[in-house]
């Protein structure tokens, strides 16, 4: 009898909800389906491409924000008497002489570290500006349509017809001193067209959905429909394009600085150092290789991140 009483006190084992949960749902008593964003994050965490690119980008962001953590040497301090084109000492990792010295006797390692700030600022700032400008432009054109879409599309075609680098060279050539923010504004002025096209197409597709038509039938205002219904469901392809484009803007800044039309001294930039190192390519190739490799790694990291995000957000690629 006591055994029966004791057994009655023991609660029955709860069913294994995690094993019985259907695919594509979170474990739990309700089995609530994952949203697009949680499902994308679930895939991203298991994608080696995303993990590697995220680690590289995190490292670059920390380097750009706190360069003093990586070196205590000033990137503008030079000593021609002892450090002129001095070869790298690869055994001294993360030391001023690790990557050698340039023609001004400055530590290439210190300049690589501090050069990340200008490149990251240009890439992130241009991406934010073109996403906001192109996103607003594309949302208005795609949602309202009609004659407004026709006018805005012709404006879009006009800007899209200007070659990006050539137009940036013409704009930047009008300034005697080219700071980081002047370069940002010049690139954003010419680079918003791709985001606008993607946003317009995504909004045209989304506004035909049943939930948008239901919101209109219930009397929801234009602002509420755009912000609550269309924007969250049309933003995924915009994020993918913006992530990939960020690396392109960093490469564009380096290219313009290499041509002498982008950033200028005393700003520390990888493009400026690549331009200075081209004259020493035969007798001191390390002057050019270090900043050029950093540009390549940074651009590759953002392209890899964009590809991973695209694969996670596009159901057709699953």
From TrEMBL:
Similarity annotation: Belongs to the binding-protein-dependent transport system permease family.
Membrane-spanning intervals of the chain: 49-69, 120-144, 151-172, 178-198, 234-252, 288-309
Primary localization class, coarse: membrane
CDD domains xref list: TM_PBP2
Native organism taxonomy: Bacteria, Bacillati, Actinomycetota, Actinomycetes, Kitasatosporales
Protein name: ABC transporter permease
Membrane topology, from the record: Multi-pass membrane protein
Provenance organism: Streptomyces lycii
Cross-referenced InterPro entries: BP-dependent_transpt_permease (IPR050366), MetI-like (IPR000515), MetI-like_sf (IPR035906), OppC_N (IPR025966)
Region (Disordered), start-end ranges: 1-31
